[in-house]
Write a structure and sequence with these properties.
binds heme C, 12 helices, mainly alpha
Length: 236
């Protein structure tokens, strides 16, 4: 299970550095396949924070609302920001991109992550949930090893860096949408897009001893913005 970890880190290291040189490819690739939001359905159901709120956000409509039915619907210059996984490995045969800014645009290709949630160590769909209860940090490590990306922890060093792959803070930015002069006000945009809630890990992080903080350093938030207050948990 953990044998592949070094390779995975190595691969993602290379991908990240290539990606920061070529700002034309914002989607994060981690060697897995992009499965689309249907693969994230545990998070998308009713009662689930991410799902309910996401559907009302502009990210869920960046292709439908802005490109669909226009001459730019398939334009790579637009798809790199208004769609997900353009030019990447998509599980569904024949698809060149996934419409809109989907979960995987920020959290990385999800096929391996999905597999472990559905059938961790071949022990069925409850096995991962059990691990999550028994040993949340180990569970998070397993998720990250499977390619799950969280900006400010194991992905882009800061959340803002991730946002800036598609947004810009001044009008002269080269990496800017040709159709609007609106600029990102980071704090305001983060607040609007914030879908964190207080989960098992967040509660435990607060209680970690200094030794455990060292042990789990790779899994802890490094970006200050992630220490801002969380919304209370809504799930289950
Ligand atoms: C660098 C990323 C990026 C690229 C490339 C890009 N867009 Fe955008 N686009 C955005 C973002 C981000 C916004 C929203 C800006 C905001 O609200 O702060 C936006 C907004 C828009 C809007 C709404 C403008 C308005 O009136 O509010 C349209 C329409 C649009 N884009 C079309 C396109 C088309 C067509 C292309 C290709 C020719 C394109 N975009 C390329 C990121 C991009
Ligand atoms: C625009 C980028 C972006 C998109 C799109 C996105 N996320 Fe996130 N997500 C983030 C960031 C940044 C965080 C904050 C990191 C953290 O929680 O530590 C986060 C955190 C999370 C968390 C952890 C929440 C918590 O309680 O700590 C979950 C679960 C999550 N996202 C699920 C989703 C799902 C499901 C979707 C699609 C419906 C999605 N995300 C779409 C950027 C994104
Ligand atoms: C893959 C590209 C992409 C990434 C990464 C991304 N965005 Fe966006 N975002 C867009 C596009 C495209 C729009 C334009 C939506 C529209 O107007 O159609 C948008 C719109 C928004 C809006 C709505 C703005 C408004 O006018 O109300 C907010 C808020 C936002 N993004 C926040 C963020 C934050 C915070 C991050 C980083 C965690 C982020 N985005 C990362 C592409 C992206």
């Amino acid at each position: 299970m953990f044998g592949g970890r070094k390779t995975l880190c190595l691969i993602s290291g290379i991908v990240v550095s290539v990606w920061s040189l070529a700002s034309s490819l914002p989607a994060i690739s981690n060697g897995a396949d992009f499965v689309g939001n249907s693969g994230c359905k545990c998070h998308m159901g009713k009662g689930c924070f991410e799902g309910e709120e996401y559907k009302e956000r502009l990210h869920s409509n960046t292709w439908e609302k802005r490109l669909k039915g226009t001459p730019d619907a398939e334009n790579p210059d637009c798809l790199k920001c208004h769609a997900t996984a353009y030019g990447e490995k998509i599980a569904e045969v024949g698809k060149k991109y996934l419409p809109n800014v989907q979960c995987e645009a920020c959290h990385g290709a999800g096929s391996e992550y999905k597999k472990l949630k559905e059938n961790f160590q071949g022990k069925g769909k409850d096995a991962f949930k059990e691990l999550l209860k028994k040993d949340p940090f180990e569970a998070r490590k397993v998720q990250f090893d499977a390619g799950l990306i969280v900006a400010g922890i194991n992905g882009p060093a800061t959340v803002k860096e991730q946002c800036l792959t598609c947004h810009w803070e001044n009008k002269d930015d080269k990496n800017k949408c040709p159709k609007t002069d609106k600029v990102m006000d980071y704090k305001d945009y983060f607040k609007k897009d914030d879908h964190r809630d207080e989960d098992e890990i967040d509660v435990l992080i607060k209680k970690l001893s200094p030794e455990d903080k060292k042990k789990w350093a790779a899994l802890l938030p490094k970006d200050e913005i992630l220490n801002t207050p969380l919304k209370p948990k809504k799930k289950e």
